[in-house]
User: What shape does this take?
Amino acid sequence: MGLAGCTPAPVPVEQAEKICLGAAYESSAGPKTEVGFGVGNHGFRGGYVSVGMSADQLMGRDPAEVFARCVMKRSGQMPQRPLYDQPGWASR
Assistant: This one.
């Protein structure tokens, strides 16, 4: 009974497709990098380098597979159009 509230309500498949484009893009893009440093009154204070990758990138998953699984998980339905036919995908 207590776990019933933990499952998110399904969203319309069109909305899920829009949301899941981001997950597909992350799985196809290269690693994200971030560099930072600090300077104070007495000169250089420190810095950092951060590199991040999604689990889908590490596993080498096809972005179309990532997209389809995401849409199915969020809407309970398969995508109406495959990833490569989605508006905006080719421009990414």
Summary: The CA atoms of residues 21 and 88 lie 9 Å apart. The longest strand covers residues 43-52.
